């Protein structure tokens, strides 16, 4: 299978898609955990650490997905994404702000003219339990408001029941509704139970046209874990040969400190390759991570440990 | 029956309520007052100091939010636990300081009494440091003392237990949390004190004990932006200036320390109690 037509064929037939996904080699869970743990012991110091910290800042999707979000909070978040440290203009901007669809207009207004993208969750986030029409309307709403990127959730119920085509059809339809906006597909790996399922869901999303595959909504524990991201990185690396394009990976939820973020970057470098070490192909979905990155950056620059009192709270 | 194998104690750090080894894996030799080998103690690194500050900061809200009465009860509990292990502490102080048994027993007794004395201050300190101020207007005006936050303490080098207790108890009784660098050459009583603190209802992270080289750890803590005050008692007086300069970076409170180690058995007064406090003054309209 090397052509786009073969890819279309897979998506057209439920049986063919099932056969393909179930035919993927199983994941050696113990091996994946051991490899992720071994890579986490790499020592990244000094210049490499500064580079990694700046790169991680540029890869961050600064996120607020709360029922209590207000335009004021989104405005503050945008300001922080554009200029993470008001006292230091050498800090690069974050990749994007990630908000609910009704906040997209506010975010667009306050990031205009900056490199910061606006991402919106859609398709009945976080559960995805709505009809396809509602999900598509949700998506179109966010795109019409000016979102550059759409983070959709897959129907985990359908996936776990083995109705792979239903999941794929939703992704294809949402991709169409996105127009020019980039589509990130949230697998919610905390609900997929096994790494085999993570591999299948990754391939399913890639074949259906995702620009990014994303670990989690951040509403379910466990959220992003390194073995899961390892499996997803393997999937995008292996899929490149077949679909002839690079799909990105976004690790979201539970990444709170710079040390953890750097471990993810090591994983990206070793599993997918250095080509993936850009904001176009790897992202962190996080909120409190950014302050820790700034604190570690200042530690590297000044030599003194930083304290949270000197950084803005979101 | 053969002789029992020796069960030797591993002396570790006390950080965040747990007893970790130094992340650096280093240790250093501790010798008794007469030069005999006593034990290997963990030699804390700057990262251990950083972790200790994180632990102290995390426990600050909970500890300072407790009622003064409750803090007093817990400190009194520490004294009870210390009293129960008096013999062990007397032996460790004797090994470290080389004093006679009677003097060591007296030092341990004084240390227990010091805890009890400071415990009593928990709900009395606001009476002497606070005030209802007379103002020219229809307002109540109150000044109340509040803990400053995370306090780094360079513990006295000579007095391994009484000196340590005399600098730690007055800091935590008012709600501060502490990162303590113990006496460099006499840390064993401090480590055992950690075991007492861990079993005295004192929340983990309120007191963190680091053994190691004071000259290595003091600059890290003095320049740390998340430390609110520093006590340089255990640093030689001619080496304090650069540390005070580093502390000025985030306007750390530098607690007044005597140039040479004082006689810890003397009446301590309230100086150490009042130093790590901030005064908050509140205006409130009368009749509302």
Low-confidence stretches of chain A: none
Strand order of the largest sheet of chain B: 7-6-5-8-9
Mean pLDDT across all amino acids of chain A: 95
- The number of helical runs of chain A is 13
Q: What overall form of chain B do the CA principal axes indicate? A: globular
Q: Unreliable segments of chain B (pLDDT under 50, ≥5 consecutive)?
A: none
Helix-residue proportion of chain B? 40-55%
Classify the helix fraction of chain A into a percent range.
40-55%
- Rg calculated over all Cα atoms of chain A: 19 Å
Secondary structure class of chain A reads alpha/beta
* Rg over alpha carbons of chain B: 20 Å
Q: What is the oligomer described by this structure?
A: heterodimer
Please work out how many helical segments of chain B DSSP would assign: 10
Fraction of residues in β-strands of chain A:
5-15%
What is the succession of H and E elements of chain B?
Answer: EEHHHHHEEEHEHEHEHEHE
On the 0 to 100 scale, the average pLDDT of chain B is: 95
Class by helix and strand content of chain B?
alpha/beta
Number of strands of chain A: 8
Euclidean distance between termini CA atoms of chain B: 81 Å
Structure description:
Chain A has 13 helices and eight strands. Chain A is of the alpha/beta class. In chain A, strands 1-2-3-4-5-6-7-8 form an eight-stranded parallel barrel, surrounded by eight helices. In chain A, helix 12 (258-272) links the parallel strand 7 and strand 8. The longest helix of chain A has 18 residues, at 226-243. Chain A is globular. The model of chain A has no long low-confidence stretch (mean pLDDT 95). Chain B has ten helices and ten strands. Chain B has helices at residues 46-65, 68-84, 86-97, 101-121, 125-129, 162-172, 188-198, 214-223, 240-248, 271-274; strands at 27-31, 37-42, 131-132, 139-147, 150-154, 177-181, 207-210, 229-231, 253-255, 277-285. In chain B, the strands form three sheets. Chain B has a five-stranded parallel sheet, with helices on both faces. Chain B has a three-stranded antiparallel sheet with strand order 3-4-10. In chain B, helix 1 crosses helix 8 (214-223), helix 2 (68-84) packs antiparallel against helix 4 and helix 3 packs across helix 4 (101-121). Chain B is globular, with a radius of gyration of 20 Å. Chain A binds chain B through residues 303-310, and chain B through 50, 53, 57, 220, 223-227, 246, 249-250.
């Amino acid at each position: 299978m090397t052509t786009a037509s073969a890819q279309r064929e897979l998506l057209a037939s439920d049986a063919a898609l099932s056969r393909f996904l179930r035919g993927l080699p199983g994941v050696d869970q113990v091996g994946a955990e051991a490899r992720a743990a071994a890579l986490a012991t790499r020592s990244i110091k000094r210049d490499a650490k500064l580079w990694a910290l700046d790169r991680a800042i540029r890869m961050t999707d600064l996120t607020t997905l709360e029922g209590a979000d207000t335009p004021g909070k989104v405005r503050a978040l945008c300001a922080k994404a554009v200029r993470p440290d008001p006292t230091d203009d050498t800090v690069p901007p974050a990749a994007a702000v990630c908000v609910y669809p009704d906040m997209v207009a506010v975010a667009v207004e306050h990031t205009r003219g900056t490199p910061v993208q606006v991402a919106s969750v859609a398709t009945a986030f976080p559960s995805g339990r709505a009809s396809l029409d509602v999900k598509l309307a949700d998506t179109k709403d966010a795109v019409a408001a000016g979102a550059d990127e759409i983070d959709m959730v897959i129907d985990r119920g359908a996936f776990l029941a083995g109705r792979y085509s239903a999941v794929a059809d939703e992704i294809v339809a949402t991709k169409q509704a996105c127009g020019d906006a980039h589509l990130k597909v949230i697998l919610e790996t905390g609900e997929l139970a096994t790494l085999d399922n993570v591999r299948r869901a990754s391939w399913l999303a890639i074949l259906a046209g995702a620009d990014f595959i994303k670990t989690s909504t951040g509403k379910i524990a466990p959220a992003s874990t390194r073995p899961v991201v390892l499996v997803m990185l393997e999937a995008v690396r292996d899929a490149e040969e077949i679909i002839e394009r690079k799909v990105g990976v976004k690790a979201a939820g539970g990444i709170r400190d710079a040390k953890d973020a750097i471990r993810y970057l090591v994983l990206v470098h070793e599993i997918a390759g250095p080509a993936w070490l850009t904001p176009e192909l790897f992202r962190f979905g996080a909120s409190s991570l950014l302050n820790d990155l700034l604190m570690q950056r200042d530690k590297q620059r000044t030599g003194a440990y930083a304290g949270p009192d000197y950084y803005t709270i979101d | 029956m053969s002789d029992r194998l020796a069960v030797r104690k591993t002396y570790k750090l006390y950080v965040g309520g747990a007893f970790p080894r130094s992340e650096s894996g280093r240790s250093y030799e501790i010798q008794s007052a007469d030069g005999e080998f006593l034990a290997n103690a963990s030699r804390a690194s700057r990262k251990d100091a950083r972790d200790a500050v994180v632990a102290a900061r995390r426990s600050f809200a909970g500890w300072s939010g407790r009622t003064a009465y409750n803090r007093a009860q817990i400190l009194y509990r520490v004294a009870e636990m210390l009293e129960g292990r008096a013999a062990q502490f007397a032996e460790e102080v004797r090994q470290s300081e080389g004093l006679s048994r009677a003097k060591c027993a007296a030092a341990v007794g004084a240390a227990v009494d010091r805890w009890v004395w400071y415990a009593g201050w928990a709900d009395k300190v606001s009476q002497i440091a606070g005030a209802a101020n007379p103002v020219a207007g229809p307002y109540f005006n109150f000044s109340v003392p509040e803990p400053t936050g995370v306090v780094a303490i360079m513990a006295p080098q000579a007095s391994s237990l009484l000196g340590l207790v005399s600098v730690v108890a007055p800091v935590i009784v008012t709600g501060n949390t502490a990162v303590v660098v113990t006496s460099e050459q006499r840390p064993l009583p401090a480590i055992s004190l950690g075991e007492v603190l861990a079993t005295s209802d004192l929340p983990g992270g309120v007191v963190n004990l680091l053994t190691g080289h004071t000259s290595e750890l003091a600059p890290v803590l003095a320049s740390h932006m998340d430390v609110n005050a520093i006590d340089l008692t255990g640093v030689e007086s001619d080496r304090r200036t650069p540390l005070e300069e580093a502390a000025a970076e985030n306007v750390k409170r530098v607690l007044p320390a005597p140039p040479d180690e004082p006689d810890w058995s003397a009446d301590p007064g309230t100086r150490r109690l009042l130093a790590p406090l901030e005064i908050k003054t509140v205006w409130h309209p009368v009749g509302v």
